[in-house]
Structures
1.
Amino acid sequence: MPDTTITEKEKKLAKQCLECPFCKRARRKQKGLIFWFVKKLEGSVCPACKAYEKVYGRKAHEPMPSQTNPSAE
């Protein structure tokens, strides 16, 4: 059974990911070089991205649920 408890450290790291300019842009734009970079390297390199996935249940590059795609307008 995997450990599903979320520590304070993981919450802080997830908050860092929320505030990270690269991850923020990847979530907002959903295309481009930064999106590709975050998508390919998030889980293997960045501890904040790993924590974000554990805390919020989605990858760091995936859009926020309340976010709409600005290019679709």
Note: The chain has one domain: 8-59.
2.
Amino acid sequence: MLIVPVAHLLPSDSMATKVTVNNHGPLRIEGEFTINDPSGKEFGLAGRTVISLCRCGASENKPFCDGAHNRAGFQSVCEARDLPAPKPKV
């Protein structure tokens, strides 16, 4: 399983990072960010400031979206909501 730290923010003069959960599709990330594999190695994004990450699991280019959600009939509607407060650490 690939765990992706979605947004590693850069200094304050950088563009803010925005993550959009697309219905029936990928996570779209816009702004200044890095994406790393579990060992901390950074993916080379070739200067991209917009990418999409696969949510359906069918992409041949994981963790990036290749449009496979359309062929797979992926269905997922995500409406924004407030998360509960984190549980206290014991």
Note: Strands lie at 18-21, 27-30, 50-53.
3.
Amino acid sequence: MNLKPIHHNHSVCLLTYHFVTVTKCRKHELIDPVTVDVFAESIKHYPLTIHIGEIMPDHVHFMIQAPATMSPAQIAKVIKGCSQASIKKILPTFSGWSKGYYISSVGGSSLEAVENYIKNQKS
């Protein structure tokens, strides 16, 4: 995976995160047509990029690039808030996300390990 740094006025950053969140009560409700593209479209007005993702019936995994100006908590709030509205348009019965989430920074050699982990979720 070839990631490009984000350039700001006086800084350059390359921050990548592994983000996971689950549906409320881990209900199995994330089905087609809910795709990674639905999430990417829902956050298009924010400086976030989903490089890779996998949608499971009760949770999602993403590798996300973000600027240094966004905290991990802000990233989670944007993804969960924006995607919930988009998913409810597709699946009106969607119960939403649980309160929690997992986010960790990823870089260097572990980048490929996380990428493979996310890609192999369904196998």
Note: The mean pLDDT is 93.
